Give the backbone structure.
Amino acid sequence: MKLQAGDQAPQFESIDQDGNPIKLSDFRGKKVVLYFYPKDNTPGCTAESCNLRDNYQALQAQGYEVLGVSGDSPKSHKKFIDKHELPFRLIADEDKSVHEAFGTWGEKKMYGKTYMGTLRTTFLIDENGVIEEVIEKVKTKDHTAQILK
């Protein structure tokens, strides 16, 4: 089952880069940009995260909180945040439970090989936890423009 606009966003509980608990329900009353990306400190993921960082004030001005999700550890997330001065929290989804709830863990192909991995996807979630939009064709270098269009 694929999530789409109008669906209630799945509730989740995980930990952030500092090992603090984080739940989607913590953000009730706020709009959320929930972006799933494959791996900290890889070129595409760094471009995407830095684009969101560079436009963070514009996103906040539109009422959005930004949360990134990958299967990396809290320690990896902390290094990624420190290295690139990211102003938002990153969710460590090492058991892939958040990915599975949102349908962002799936089959990928690269260089003729098939493997399981993160499907780069962004969910725009409204103040009531309803998905407003699902962005599947993410432009890593210009992602904010896709969100604020």
Q: What stands out?
A: The first helix runs from residue 43 to 54.
